[in-house]
Amino acid sequence: MERRVRIAAIVLVVAWFLLPGLRGYIPPWIVFVVFAALELQFLAVGWRDRGAPSSPRGRAPQAVDVEELGGAGWRRPVLAHIDGFEVWLPRGEPAPPRERPAAGRRRLRRVEGLVALAALAVALLVLVPDRGWSSLDEAEQSRTGARLSAEAGRIAGHTARVHCDAEGKAVGVVQHADGLAEVGGRDAFLTPEICFRLHRLAFDGDEGSFGQTARAIAVLAHEAWHLRGERDEGVVNCYAFQSGVELGRRLGLSEATAARMMRQQLAENATFARSAPAYLVPGACHDGGSLDLDPKSSRFP
Ligand SMILES: [Zn+2]
């Protein structure tokens, strides 16, 4: 059971790294705290058991070995004398169950725990900080800001300035936690995470994870629609998902991928909007509806 929980935790952490889509839903500190707590518990158990006596039966098969050989069906061999030879025969009493794992196995568990903790520390200290907005030098940051400002300006219909230093908590609302913009103004603010994802797409050709990239594009388009003068959050979302197709294509995606991303954003809108109903797209947000920006096309968004 312990082992299964632990394997599940490791799978979760690995998946969290390899499937960045998960990162949008599970904050990193939860993953790391769960994993670290689990590993510490294993270390503590291993440490506590370190003084326990090893098997009094010497090299007799251990309960764990019996389990690996098929559990209760395995029987302790008996020594028989046949024609003057000593022969082990596969019959006799079932091996008695043992409470504690063998000493070697306990040591292995402690080593496993230490290795896992070391990997975790490397991930936290080396990998994570190097892969964010702050890892970009000033020139790259301002180049990205200029590019995103230009893209926002195309949607807004006037000059826009995109700043990459918004604090999620300053914005507050769930679906809006990654950006902020003045309605009809020139200034929009995105979180460094959103800017970094768009930077990777636009300048490094890295499409990243489907969900994260889709969200980053939708957030930029959303704020741009506020700059254009639209105040209603649901309407802004409906327009943003549609503008996001062209925006994504301009930032380097194929049109088909960009369209699929925006359809995913539209599909997830109802879930997000449960905690923030103002962000729910209106009923007219469908192909041919009054909010369809391109009624001639049969694709939506
Ligand atoms: Zn908004």
Structural topology:
Layout: H1 2-18, H2 20-23, H3 28-48, H4 63-68, E1 78-82, E2 85-89, H5 103-127, H6 138-156, E3 161-163, H7 168-171, E4 179-181, E5 187-190, H8 192-204, H9 210-228, H10 233-250, H11 255-273
Parallel strand pairs: 3-5
Antiparallel strand pairs: 1-2, 4-5
Helix pairs in contact: 1-3, 3-5, 6-8, 6-9, 8-9, 9-10, 9-11, 10-11
Brief summary:
This protein has 301 residues and is mainly alpha-helical. It contains 11 helices and 5 strands. It folds into 2 domains: 119 residues, no CATH class; 146 residues, no CATH class.
Please characterize this protein's 3D structure.
The chain is mainly α and 301 residues long. 55% of the residues lie in helices and 7% in strands. It contains eleven helices and five strands. A three-stranded mixed beta sheet has the order 3-5-4. The longest helix is centred in the middle third of the chain and has 25 residues, at 103-127. It is elongated and about 100 Å long. The structure holds zinc ion (ZN). The site of zinc ion has 5 residues, from helix 9 and helix 10.
